[in-house]
């Protein structure tokens, strides 16, 4: 259900939809190069607030292909009031639980265990404060130093164009965040994670928005390169098994620790869209 | 690492180990009837408290067979101090965080989608209070009314021998507990769930212990009957797929909501033993 957006919210929402279009077109192109005619299916969903007011909604994009075993690219624009319990945990929402959020969220589970999986998410949040957040991290079942280095280098250059402190700070943030305490392992080889890039002044919007756009563009530049480099490699049954076990860890992280998942489930988001991050198939020993 | 037990704790621990032996022998017998020589592998684990004092431990029992695709039967006896954050959530631990727990925990994921999966757990907890808790619930991928009725009837009769209020109360508790809010579905067809059957007087131990023993005996009586009734049924690819999707829901419940899983992960239990409840293989659409 449509909610009314102000200029900043409209500009951000439009960008996330454009980025979605560009990413999905590129992923479908990769499928075509592999001789597959797989395409994204788009499933719109509406959200209603508990008081019956319009709560926004989103579009879940899902493709099951030859190279992309399962990839979800979701955009959503939602608004309403946080529950009392949740409001206290959110920046600027303690005394006024109203919120607005628009963003893009992507998780790709690749068929070939040599092709790294990936997660990317960027968003614009408004409570009594306004800020951008997001990040991208690489999750190979079989890590490869060259891929890891290329992925980080591209994010590093995107960050460097905006603030010399961003990359080291956001890389560490990803290392701290994408960690599975009960297994004492990271869920992947990291990337960047950032949150609360706040608009202290109205004029901060343009530069913070430009940074979040550049993170999206960096992702769109580097990830398809890594896919094309590895997608024709052969794999063994043991490597596929290793991937399925590794995906179990990924599911553990997302269900036990991920704040985005909790945010979605607690704010009445679309369950299928939220849990699109879960792997198509996983094993536990 | 061994911890010193008082008489009640010793008696309870001994029973949980005996029950484990009987259950595992029966499950291995079922495998033998199906022409398989699958047997439980037992993996002991030790636990050390953060202050270096003995924290107890347990034995993880795991069998991967022809009928039981993956079944875990764990016993453990642990003691120490709850973290400040966790102590406030536990009965009788708010002002004194010391705890002791001994129990048995079982989850069976069956190969044949017509054979119901099952969970059973009983335990004796000591903080400044002492109580028994536990339950058993049936989790068929393809529910069958006859099996559901037989399972509930056997638990109903075990409860009825102790207290006429137990079955209706504990059945409702299971219905309330084994529920996946974000999907608005129950994780299975229920059973019983109980907690805080407290020892108000020293003399309460015998009757409360007798009830928990009878829950274990009822499980051992009914579940093998259901397995033998269904284990030779044929299944289709579609039914196996339905089971794998259903197992994804089961993993979601255990990782997002299950208090036993949270208890284990937060008290430094053995991760492999705690997460033995996760399915051998699961799928998400």
What do you see in this structure?
The structure is a homodimer of 285-residue chains. Helix content of chain A is 41%, strand content 28%. The mean pLDDT of chain A is 94. In chain A, 45% of the residues are buried. Chain A is globular and about 55 Å long. Chain A has a single domain, classed as oxygen-dependent coproporphyrinogen oxidase. Chain A contains 8 helices and 10 strands. Chain A binds chain B through residues 70, 181-183, 244, 248, 251-252, 255-256, 265, 271, 274-275, 278-285, and chain B through 70, 181-183, 244, 248, 251-252, 255-256, 265, 271, 274-275, 278-285.
Record the SSE blueprint.
2 copies of one chain form a homodimer.
Chain A: H1 7-33, E1 41-48, E2 54-63, E3 68-81, H2 84-87, E4 98-110, E5 117-126, E6 130-139, H3 145-160, H4 166-177, E7 179-180, E8 185-186, E9 190-198, H5 204-230, H6 237-256, H7 259-266, H8 271-274, E10 281-283
Antiparallel strand pairs in A: 1-2, 2-3, 3-4, 4-5, 5-6, 6-9, 7-8
Helix pairs in contact in A: 1-5, 3-5
Question: Briefly, what is this?
Answer:
Chains A, B: InterPro entries: Coprogen_oxidase_aer (IPR001260), Coprogen_oxidase_aer_sf (IPR036406). With 285 residues, chain A is an alpha+beta fold.
């Amino acid at each position: 259900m449509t909610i009314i957006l102000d200029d900043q919210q409209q500009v951000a929402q439009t960008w996330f939809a454009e980025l979605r279009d560009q990413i999905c077109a590129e992923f479908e192109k990769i499928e075509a190069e592999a001789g597959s005619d797989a395409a994204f299916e788009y499933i719109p969903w509406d959200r209603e607030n508990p008081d019956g007011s319009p709560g926004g909604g989103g579009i879940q994009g899902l493709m099951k292909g030859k190279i992309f075993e399962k990839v979800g690219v979701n955009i959503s624009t939602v608004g309403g009031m946080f529950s009392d319990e949740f409001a206290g945990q959110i920046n600027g929402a303690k005394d006024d639980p109203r919120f607005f959020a628009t963003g893009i969220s992507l998780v790709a589970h690749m068929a070939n265990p040599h092709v790294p999986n990936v997660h990317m998410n960027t968003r614009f949040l408004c409570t009594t404060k306004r800020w951008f957040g997001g990040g991208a991290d690489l999750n190979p079942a079989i890590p490869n130093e060259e891929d890891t280095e290329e992925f980080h280098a591209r994010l590093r250059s995107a960050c460097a164009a905006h603030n010399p402190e961003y990359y080291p700070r956001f890389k560490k943030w990803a290392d701290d965040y994408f960690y599975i305490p009960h297994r004492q392992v990271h869920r992947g080889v990291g990337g960047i994670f950032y949150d609360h890039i706040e608009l202290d002044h109205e004029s901060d919007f343009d530069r913070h928005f430009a940074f979040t756009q550049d993170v999206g563009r960096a992702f769109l530049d580097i990830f398809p390169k890594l896919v094309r480099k590895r997608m024709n490699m052969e794999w063994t049954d043991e490597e596929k098994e290793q991937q399925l076990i590794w995906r179990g860890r990924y599911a553990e992280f997302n269900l036990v620790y991920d704040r985005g998942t909790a945010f979605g489930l607690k704010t009445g988001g679309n369950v299928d869209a939220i849990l699109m991050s879960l792997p198509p198939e996983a094993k536990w020993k």
